[in-house]
Amino acid sequence: MKRTLIIFFAFGMAVACKTNENNTSVSGTIQNAEGKAVSLITYPGGEPDTIGSTVLGNDGNFSFDVTPGRLAFYTLTIETAKPIVLAFDSASNVEFTADLNTVNETYDVKGSKDSEKIRDFFITGTKYERGMDSTMQALQAAANAGDDDLRVRLANDYNDQRKSYRTYLIDFIEEDTTSAANFTVLQRIDPKTDLALYKKVRNGLSTRMQGNFFFDQLNNQIVQLERQAALESFLSPGSMAPDIVLPNPADETTTLSSLRGKYVLIDFWASWCKPCRIENPNVVRMYNKYKDENFEIFGVSLDRDKAKWEEAIQVDGLQWLHVSDLQFWNSAAAQLYNVKSIPFTVLLDPDGKVIQTNLRGPALEEKMAGIFGY
């Protein structure tokens, strides 16, 4: 999730709320905080907007009225303390109590199940994280001292703690997929390896938070990850490579599918790409070695200057098929294959299925030797 969300998940202090019949309210008492400024902040469009601010008196009491609305995130900030994350809607009247001296460990919140869950996660999650930090420090000390037995034991302890923490994180989400507190948990989970959990949180909150900036950020991140996974999937080993139809230097339409029946190395490159030009002698060597063994290269250039493209073909001795629409990074083939950097290669079998991607230098040579036996 984009770092825009992080502000909500840095754990902090506390506040309190009392019922207001005409409006949603956030109120409470903070002991030992006389003279400290307290503010309630909302985030329309992701940017902070202070709803209200006050300086606490002797009794430590405060109260803020909030315009009724759908479930959203807020932070209560207290001078000299870390912010407290709240999440509530117009059905809530949030009540917070805390002691400024121990606000992070002792604050209490009522009137909002989402805010209560955020607090619960903070208390338990902090224990896990502090335990792992302590073990890691001991592990590093053992390594520096050369105590291998202790180092191994502590490494095993640390791995066990990480597994237990991960189980806790997953169980926390599974317990209630509709809780806004799950945003906090997602900050501790890798979206690429746990995309299913991200989607559970998104789906669980879609009714309650649709249109909220941070919910939309989460949804956009999931869409991007799904798109990336789909792009990676279609170039995974055994997948069918999409056809490429582009003009060659003679402006004749040339297709990748016309090479079906041969092993084909699709080589994305450009005359202006220095790493490509450095790699070209290796590709030439592979071509000369296997061109009589049912092997062909399909060069796709990301050039925009036809003369320079043709010159590079001649100078580097690239005696195989070449195509380009001269659209630079907007090349239709580059877009189709999600090419983000060059040189980039895709090796296909005679059926047009992907064998492996991004083979270069020794890796390409080893793969070719494995296919042809020499």
Give the overall average pLDDT. 91
Q: What's the CATH architecture name of the largest domain?
A: 3-Layer(aba) Sandwich
Q: What class would the helix/strand composition place it in?
A: alpha+beta
- Walk across the major sheet and give the strand order: 13-12-11-14-15
Q: How are helices and strands ordered from N to C?
A: EEEEEEEHEHHHHHEEEHEHEHEEH
Could you walk me through the main structural features you see in this protein, from its secondary elements to its overall organization?
This protein has ten helices and 15 strands. The protein is α+β, with helices and mostly antiparallel strands and 374 residues long. The chain has a five-stranded mixed β-sheet, covered by helices on one side. Strands 4-1-7-8 form a four-stranded mixed β-sheet. Mean pLDDT is 91; it is low at 1-21.
Give a nutshell description of this structure.
With 374 residues, the chain is an alpha+beta fold. The protein folds into 3 domains: 3-112, Sandwich (Immunoglobulin-like); 121-234, no CATH class; 245-372, Glutaredoxin (3-Layer(aba) Sandwich), CATH 3.40.30. 41% of the residues lie in helices and 21% in strands.
Features:
single chain; 374 residues; alpha+beta; Immunoglobulin-like; Glutaredoxin; 3 domains; five-stranded mixed beta sheet; four-stranded mixed beta sheet; 10 helices; 15 strands; 21% strand; disordered N terminus
Architecture blueprint of SSEs:
Layout: E1 24-31, E2 37-42, E3 49-55, E4 61-66, E5 72-78, E6 84-88, E7 94-99, H1 103-106, E8 108-110, H2 113-145, H3 148-175, H4 182-186, H5 195-209, H6 213-234, E9 245-247, E10 253-255, E11 263-269, H7 274-290, E12 295-301, H8 306-316, E13 321-323, H9 332-336, E14 344-348, E15 354-357, H10 361-372
Parallel strand pairs: 1-7, 11-12, 12-13
Antiparallel strand pairs: 1-4, 2-3, 2-5, 5-6, 7-8, 9-10, 11-14, 14-15
Helix pairs in contact: 2-3, 5-6, 7-10
